[in-house]
Specification:
180 residues, mainly beta, Jelly Rolls, six-stranded antiparallel β-sheet, globular
């Protein structure tokens, strides 16, 4: 039996290629958690390493429960076992009153929080940084993963926080929808 070079290459590629989470650079993957209304973008953000007035997403919604009031970013692909993800977000209070929220890595397929920060409390005039590192397990292979920013307070409408940037594995994620 004669095995061609092409057959060997195809075997090696299909055997050793793994799915992985990726960042979609073409689509716009930001949405609200509670409904399909567009996310709100403000342009009063400072230069926190990503540019002055380049846009920030408001974390405010209309849901009655904190775990549904917020925003999410959908990752493309799905994780493979032992794949690592590192998240960093800059945020600031965009109103007079403090906000409490969490950053979460969420498995949409299983409706399961994989990892989350402790409750973050904003302060007037302070730009904060949240970070979260996670190593996926085989139970998440093939699943749809999102990064969520959810409220963790009394949901008072005067409380508003803005997400100035999100970095995934040191790569900035576009907050504004690009004009076509």
């Amino acid at each position: 039996m004669k095995i061609s070079h092409l057959t060997i290459c195809l075997f090696l590629i299909t055997t050793f290629t793994k799915a992985q989470i990726t960042i979609d650079k073409v689509g716009y993957n930001w949405s609200r958690i509670e409904n399909r209304t567009p996310v709100i973008i403000v342009n009063n953000d400072a230069n926190n390493g990503d540019g002055l007035n380049d846009g920030a997403i408001v974390i405010k919604g209309t849901a009655n429960t904190p775990e549904f009031q917020g925003i999410q970013y959908s990752l493309s692909g799905s994780p493979h076992n032992s794949e690592k993800i590192s998240l960093e977000a800059k945020y600031y209070q965009n109103a007079a009153s403090y906000v409490k929220f969490k950053m979460q890595l969420y498995d949409l397929t299983k409706n399961l929080v994989l990892a989350e920060t402790d409750v973050i409390t904003t302060s007037t005039g302070v730009v904060g940084t949240a970070s979260l590192d996670y190593k996926f397990t085989d139970t998440s292979v093939g699943d749809k993963i999102v990064i969520r920013f959810v409220r963790a307070d009394d949901l008072n409408i005067v409380r508003v926080v803005a997400l100035d940037y999100l970095k995934i594995n040191d790569q900035f994620i576009e907050l504004k929808k690009s004009k076509k």
